[in-house]
Design goal:
- By secondary structure, the protein is of the alpha/beta class.
- Among the domains are: about 110 residues, no CATH class; about 80 residues, no CATH class.
- Helix content is about 25%, strand content about 25%.
- It is built from 10 helices and 13 strands.
- Strands 3, 4, 11, 12 and 13 form a 5-stranded mixed beta sheet that branches. A 4-stranded mixed beta sheet has the order 5-10-9-6. The protein has a two-stranded antiparallel sheet with strand order 1-2.
- β3 and β4 form a beta hairpin.
- The longest helix has 22 residues.
- The radius of gyration is 21 Å and the shape is globular.
- It binds iron/sulfur cluster (2 copies).
- One iron/sulfur cluster (SF4) binds next to loops.
Length: about 280
Amino acid sequence: MALLLYLTGPYKRLEELLPDMPDELEVASITYHTPAKILTNFLKFLKIFETIKHPELQDNKEKNLFSNSKGNKNNALADITVMTNSEEADPFDAATARVKHNVIDTELESINSFLCAPCKCTLCCTGPSKNAVQDFFEIPLSSEEATLFKLPVHDSDESKKTDAYAENSLKINGKPFYSLPPALYHWKNGWSMILTRESSCPALSSQGACTIYSSRPRVCRKPQVFAAILEHQQADTYTFKNSLVAVWDCPYVRELKQLITDYAAHNETDIIFRENKS
Ligand code: SF4
Ligand code: SF4
């Protein structure tokens, strides 16, 4: 709604919209108190539309950033490529999808602070149990986050040609990677920590607390509901999926199923409930 107001109103900069926001806003049965304050937290994601509406606002540095590989200066998503139906998405649709993904991702992060930590749930910090169907549990990491953990590292040409779920599993010294103790892997789609059966994250203390809580990876800051508006394929390529994925193992996902379904409906996304561990 804020985007619609900005694009159709007399505004050049997004901040100019804030004084025009009402004290209270009701949209689809949800009441937002002080919407201008809420919107301030998300303006950084919407900035991309300032240069779409007013291309003259781009400085030289931004012009380079906003040029895609095909030299289209209007593509405000030059740093990632968004695909829909095997074709590169329209720049405006790609920018809208990216904003939606970032906003939902940020909202879910703040929701998490009300759930896992106060209840000391550590299901996400431990590998599958002895008799579980799954062999391992994967925690995706950025390259910086991977340095937080003191674990064996597998970063080879072989690992970078495959991923954790490939049909022909990566073998280390002739053994499938998931039969080894927990380790860090550099896959073709990025880094991850693999927690194998009956193992736990090295940052989890014997009292069940995260010892790196303030610097824990981004994925640990979310409940088991993930924004999947854009789904990472490889390198800088994403596909438009327009979904939320909720992992059924999480006790909060089961308890809050209806709320999560309503949240997806309000955001006009599909909702996928799936098992992760068993
Ligand atoms: S970093 Fe902390 S929150 Fe994340 S899996 Fe390890 S112990 Fe759990
Ligand atoms: S299972 Fe749910 S409540 Fe438990 S740590 Fe994971 S996200 Fe938090």
